[in-house]
């Protein structure tokens, strides 16, 4: 692939007149719930027709997608572009980061506004919009961090969920003591406020106090190198926080989304909580954790080891990547993000003599799709529909962007990937588009990558050639009360600004506690009703045995005839992911 190093500004060309009509012919459309051989016609950034023998205006550009998959563009639910943390600023800004995203097949990212303790959330939100709006090459949304607690924060959360701001998710940290961490009381208040607002609380689940004490002990023993990072925060430290976050969410009668789940122990804790809780519990893992592992912390080269430092850390257990792929396939986890938060070498060196000063973060926004395809689809763990679910559709549903995003269908945004399942390449910092000169997937050979990436109807990766436009993307406002999270029951009439003490639990499940959402019986396990990727299909559902389209030996035989099917339609048993 080659890069256009000179970005074309939106004002510099007439994008619309040259590229407003596009036909993608002869491909296989893959949605989260089915696949079918159909053509797609796009006009003015919107999918206008899907079918065969379409009637198309003259002069329309045609892309021949024979032997390729036509999928909704990836949605990366977790990025940190231009983030100031631990004395440094992440290297990918909103231009370079979204450009790398598009190169890898992602057409929408959701970044995190992270206020400093004491800072107004509205002010931080305005800063993020200012950093992003003129730079993004694809659409983006925002989550907002709740990094401190006060009545003002509560009020600003309410304001942020209005149409003016378009926020429907808030992230709280159980780690980063003395920086972004909330104690359990404040976490409870924040989650409870989310529930009242019908917004989705997200947590970074690690026990910050245990990490702080372990760090002191390790440093006192002379363990100062990057290997200390993992040692200070092992799987148990993650799993304990997952469990605690779930308990707090249950007490607050709230759904919960756990970001970057990095270990088998953490997934087990989430499964156990699901078995007893009333509300939807969602889990996200990362490209990093399915694509590599914690053995790198032992590398004698500081640059190499430090480049892998992120939190929670990569795990030394070599079975972790496959287990996380299986968890994604089985709907134990619902999405894969990147947590892209790259730092230049000079910034990682801030922790040269003390691992706890190494700025946390890795690359992934560019390689997320190809890494998961390689590790999970090419190995037969997951089928292409589930791949679409976990890389795109579930994020669209959870964050209430669906079906504008996350689906190949008439009236959806023309954010598409023409995926070549046979395209082979070797991932390398020498050729990637990210701002740093290190790639945690360096040298990995992948089979399957995007050939074309269409962003709002514009071909931004054109037969491997990157042609992004700085500022072409737009901010996507997201409304609260996502059906995927809160079910299809109407929101309570009470104004959200009023605290409702009836949700305070005495610790035992009670029907009274569930009055803000549907009871768990009426929700699917995770809230994501997309089929899992490797289970036996119900009669009439997709047949994985009889197809003619071959992606790899393992998944040979995907049905070419099946049309898009909805397993749990509106009004059916699901929470409303349709
Ligand atoms: N994950 C990480 O190591 N860096 C980004 C900030 C965060 O999400 O914790
Ligand atoms: Zn993060």
SSE layout:
Blueprint: E1 2-3, E2 8-9, H1 15-19, E3 21-25, E4 28-31, E5 34-37, E6 39-43, E7 46-51, E8 61-64, E9 69-72, E10 74-79, E11 84-85, E12 88-89, H2 94-103, E13 106-113, H3 121-132, E14 139-145, H4 151-160, E15 169-173, H5 184-197, E16 200-204, H6 208-220, H7 227-231, H8 235-251, E17 256-258, H9 264-276, E18 281-286, H10 287-291, H11 302-307, H12 320-329, E19 335-337, H13 345-348, H14 368-377, H15 384-398, E20 416-426, E21 445-455, E22 458-462, E23 465-466, E24 469-470, H16 483-486
Parallel strand pairs: 1-23, 2-24, 3-8, 4-9, 10-13, 13-14, 14-15, 15-16, 16-17, 17-18, 18-19
Antiparallel strand pairs: 3-6, 4-5, 6-7, 9-20, 11-12, 20-21, 21-22, 22-23
| Total strand segments | 24
Helix content: 25-40%
Bound chemical compounds: N-(aminocarbonyl)-beta-alanine, zinc ion
CATH-defined topology of the domain at 73-447: TIM Barrel
Determine the number of helices (DSSP H or I, runs of at least 4 residues). 16
Characterize the biggest β-sheet.
8 strands, mixed
Please report the first level of CATH classification, the CATH class of the domain at 73-447.
Answer: Alpha Beta
Instruction: Give the CA-based shape.
Output: globular
Q: Which architecture of the domain at 73-447 does the CATH hierarchy give at level 2? A: Alpha-Beta Barrel
Mean pLDDT, all residues:
86
Radius of gyration: 22 Å
Strand content: 15-25%
Structural class: alpha/beta
Description:
Belongs to the metallo-dependent hydrolases superfamily. Hydantoinase/dihydropyrimidinase family. The modification N6-carboxylysine is found at residue 171. Homotetramer. With 578 residues, the chain is an alpha/beta fold. It has a domain at 73-447: TIM Barrel (Alpha-Beta Barrel). 26% of the residues lie in helices and 20% in strands. It contains 16 helices and 24 strands. Strands 1-23-22-21-20-9-4-5 form an eight-stranded mixed β-sheet. The protein has an eight-stranded parallel β-sheet with strand order 10-13-14-15-16-17-18-19. Zinc ion is lined by residues 78, 80, 339.
């Amino acid at each position: 692939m080659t890069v256009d190093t000179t970005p074309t500004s939106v004002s510099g060309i007439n994008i619309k007149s040259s590229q407003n009509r596009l036909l993608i012919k002869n491909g296989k459309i893959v949605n989260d719930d089915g696949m079918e051989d159909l053509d797609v016609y796009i006009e003015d950034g919107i999918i206008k027709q899907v079918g065969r023998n379409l009637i198309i205006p003259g002069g329309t550009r045609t892309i021949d997608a024979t032997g390729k998959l036509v999928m909704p563009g990836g949605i990366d639910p977790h990025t940190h572009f231009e983030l100031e943390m631990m004395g440094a600023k992440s290297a990918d800004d909103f231009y370079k980061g979204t450009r790398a995203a598009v190169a890898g097949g992602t057409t929408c990212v959701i970044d995190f506004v992270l206020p400093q303790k004491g800072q107004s959330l509205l002010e931080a939100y305005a800063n993020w919009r200012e950093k992003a709006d003129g730079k993004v090459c694809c659409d983006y949304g925002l989550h907002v961090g709740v990094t401190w607690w006060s009545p003002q924060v509560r009020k600003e959360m309410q304001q942020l969920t209005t149409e003016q701001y378009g926020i429907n998710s808030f992230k709280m940290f159980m780690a980063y003591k003395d920086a972004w961490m909330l104690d359990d009381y404040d976490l409870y208040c924040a989650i409870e406020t989310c529930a009242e607002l019908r917004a989705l609380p997200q947590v970074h689940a690690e026990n910050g106090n245990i990490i702080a004490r372990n760090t002191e002990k390790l440093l006192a023993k002379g363990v100062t190198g990057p290997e200390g990072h993992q040692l200070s925060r092992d799987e148990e430290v993650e799993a304990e926080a997952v469990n605690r976050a779930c308990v707090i969410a249950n007490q607050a009668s709230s759904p919960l989304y756990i970001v970057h789940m990095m270990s088998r122990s953490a997934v087990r804790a989430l499964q156990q909580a699901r078995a007893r809780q009333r509300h939807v519990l969602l889990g996200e893992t990362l490209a990093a954790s399915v694509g590599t592992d914690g053995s790198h912390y032992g590398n004698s080269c500081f640059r190499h080891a430090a480049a892998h430092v992120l939190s929670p850390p990569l795990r030394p257990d070599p079975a972790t990547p496959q287990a996380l792929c299986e968890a994604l396939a089985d709907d134990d986890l619902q999405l894969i993000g990147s947590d892209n938060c790259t730092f230049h070498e000079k910034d990682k060196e801030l922790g040269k003599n003390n691992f706890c000063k190494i700025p946390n973060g890795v690359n992934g926004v560019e390689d997320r799709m190809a890494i998961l395809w390689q590790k999970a689809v090419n190995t037969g763990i997951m089928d292409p529909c589930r791949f679409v679910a976990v890389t795109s559709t579930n994020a669209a549903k959870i964050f209430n962007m669906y079906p504008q995003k996350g689906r190949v269908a008439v009236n959806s945004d023309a954010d598409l990937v023409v995926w070549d399942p046979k395209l082979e390449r070797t991932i390398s910092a020498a050729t990637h588009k990210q701002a740093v000169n290190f790639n945690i997937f360096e040298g990995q050979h992948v089979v399957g990558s995007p050939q074309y990436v269409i962003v709002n109807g514009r071909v931004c990766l054109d037969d491997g050639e990157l042609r992004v436009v700085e500022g072409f993307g737009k901010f996507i406002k997201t409304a609260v009360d996502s059906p995927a999270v809160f079910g299809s029951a109407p929101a309570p009439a009470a104004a959200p600004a009023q605290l409702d003490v009836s949700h305070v639990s005495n610790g035992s499940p009670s029907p009274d506690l569930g009055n803000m959402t549907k009871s768990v019986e009426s929700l699917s396990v995770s809230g994501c009703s997309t089929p899992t990727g490797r289970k036996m299909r119900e009669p009439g559902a997709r047949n994985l045995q009889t197809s003619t389209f071959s992606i790899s030996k393992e998944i040979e035989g995907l049905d070419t005839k099946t049309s898009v099917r909805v397993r749990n339609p509106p009004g059916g048993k699901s929470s409303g992911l349709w």
